[in-house]
Amino acid sequence: MKERTLIAAGALNMFVAVGCGAFGAHGLKKMISEEMLAIWHTAVTYQVMHALGMIAIALLMPRMAGAALHWAGRLMLAGIVIFSGSLYLLALTGTRILGAITPFGGVAFLAAWLLVAWAALKNR
């Protein structure tokens, strides 16, 4: 993923996360249980952290050559879609089987952060 594309994807994810956070705080709290609201909050939190991570990766790309950061950005985006997306759907629908998908997004996040560390250690 190119730097500009990654920044745009990160910024759009921040936009969505802020909107989802506001929706959870104002619109959902009377519609879903406290447990589901906590799940929604977790989805928002991880989306925010990794959207900012995507932007940080894009800013690091000119300083650190190699494919590791490109893959890290892709994995963060995939993690947001899978992890946060499955939690949003779980909170809205109560369909518990969606929780089985969530760990795949978490693994994508973990792999992305390992790639960031690898890029930093490899590029001295």
TrEMBL record:
Localisation per UniProt entry: Membrane
Membrane topology summary: Multi-pass membrane protein
Membrane in keyword set: yes
Source superkingdom: Bacteria
Pfam families in the record: DUF423
GO CC, alphabetical: plasma membrane
First-listed, main subcellular location of the protein, grouped into a coarse class: membrane
Keyword Ubl conjugation recorded: no
Ranges annotated as spanning the membrane: 7-26, 38-60, 72-91, 97-121
UniProt keyword terms in alphabetical order: Membrane, Transmembrane, Transmembrane helix
Family classification: Belongs to the UPF0382 family.
Name of the molecule in the record: DUF423 domain-containing protein
Native species: Herbaspirillum aquaticum
